[in-house]
């Protein structure tokens, strides 16, 4: 079978690999149908993801059909349409015992630390396969994983009905967070330096949008919230500056959610945190959010219509990666089909 492998930084190849086999009675084999390209896949391609090793079959946002099940598998059956929860953890460390396996000390993400889902077939423990409605097209089930990031970050930020939530960044993750925060009943403001993306955010339901290239984002956010600042700020732009601005503008008793992986320090003044008793939290991957997101997608409460803007056959993976890297092309989620 074939797989999309980053053999070394800047080198993407379609490689021939052995088709996997079930080794345990609780495993399932999935015929992969679609996989999303994520910013972190691009970082692996560039050689700038410190957690990735090479060669690596990428892909952690993927969906497909169950084609084989081990003898003890209960939760899914042959023919089921599933999405895969792409993280493996020890179950024993402090984080795992605290119900936070997404930050397990020995965490392995498929497509990063171990081979991922951009291949024709994959075998995973059945607990990682989550069944979705057979009516949900693969173009929609492929976005479950990015939406779990939104579920996690709005949960970490404790976004509540009636609150104001400012989302920094209107890319695919920012848009998913916007939809999720709206679902939780928050009034949403979105900032981004790209006016087209801001238009998309407005269409999705953002009450106000801010372009930091045109106005001072901190001042504007205060002005739009009657002087107090947003109650929750979720930074999916992940620059040194946006983190500083988030801490500065969030309201007293508010929360700041950090999604970035930068190793460079931001300049954060203690006074903002203490004076306002801010809660600053990180949000990584997700904990037990697949069921929740699938439920919302199955009922239509979340509707990622138009979320996927480009599709490529897997043999054209290089073209897909080139498109993702081309800043002149307007896009949202780019997916690979198998
Ligand atoms: Zn992703
Ligand atoms: Zn652990």
TrEMBL record:
InterPro entries the record matches: ADH-like_C, ADH-like_N, ADH_Zn_CS, ER, GroES-like_sf, NAD(P)-bd_dom_sf, Zn_alcohol_dh
SUPFAM superfamilies in the record: GroES-like, NAD(P)-binding Rossmann-fold domains
Pfam families named among the record's database cross-references: ADH_N (PF08240), ADH_zinc_N (PF00107)
Cofactor: Zn(2+)
Enoyl reductase (ER) domain location: 7-336
One annotated GO molecular function: oxidoreductase activity
Keywords: Metal-binding, Oxidoreductase, Zinc
Keyword Oxidoreductase on entry: yes
Keyword Nuclease recorded: no
PANTHER family reported for this sequence: L-THREONINE 3-DEHYDROGENASE
Family according to the record: Belongs to the zinc-containing alcohol dehydrogenase family.
The protein's name in its UniProt record: Zinc-binding alcohol dehydrogenase family protein
Organism this protein belongs to: Proteiniclasticum aestuarii
């Amino acid at each position: 079978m074939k797989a999309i492998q980053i053999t070394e930084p800047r080198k993407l190849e379609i490689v021939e690999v052995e088709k996997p086999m079930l080794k345990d009675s609780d495993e399932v084999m999935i015929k992969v149908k679609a996989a999303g390209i994520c910013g972190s896949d691009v970082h692996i391609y560039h050689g700038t993801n410190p957690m990735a090793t090479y060669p690596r079959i990428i892909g952690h946002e993927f969906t497909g059909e169950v084609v084989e099940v081990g003898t003890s598998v209960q939760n899914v059956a042959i023919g089921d349409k599933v999405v895969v929860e792409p993280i493996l953890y020890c179950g024993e460390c402090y984080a795992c015992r605290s119900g936070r396996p997404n930050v397990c000390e020995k965490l392995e993400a498929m497509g990063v630390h171990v081979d991922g889902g951009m291949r024709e077939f994959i075998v995973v423990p059945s607990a990682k396969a989550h069944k979705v409605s057979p009516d949900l097209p693969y173009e929609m089930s492929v976005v479950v994983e990015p939406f779990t990031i939104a579920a996690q970050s709005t949960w970490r930020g404790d976004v509540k009905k009636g609150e104001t939530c400012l989302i920094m960044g209107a890319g695919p993750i920012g848009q998913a967070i916007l939809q999720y925060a709206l679902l939780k009943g928050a009034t949403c403001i979105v900032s981004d330096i790209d006016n087209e993306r801001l238009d998309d955010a407005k269409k999705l339901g953002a009450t106000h949008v801010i372009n930091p290239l045109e106005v001072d984002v901190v001042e504007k956010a205060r002005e739009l919230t009657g002087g107090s600042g947003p109650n929750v700020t979720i930074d999916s732009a992940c620059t040194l500056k946006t983190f500083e601005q988030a801490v500065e503008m969030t309201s007293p008793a508010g929360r700041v959610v950090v999604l970035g992986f930068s190793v460079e320090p931001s300049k954060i003044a203690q006074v903002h945190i203490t004076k306002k008793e801010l809660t600053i939290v990180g949000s990584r991957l997700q904990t037990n959010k697949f069921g929740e997101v699938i439920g919302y997608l199955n009922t239509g409460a979340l509707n990622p219509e138009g979320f996927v803007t480009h599709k490529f056959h897997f043999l054209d993976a290089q073209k897909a990666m080139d498109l993702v890297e081309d800043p002149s092309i307007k896009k949202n989620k780019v997916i690979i089909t198998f």
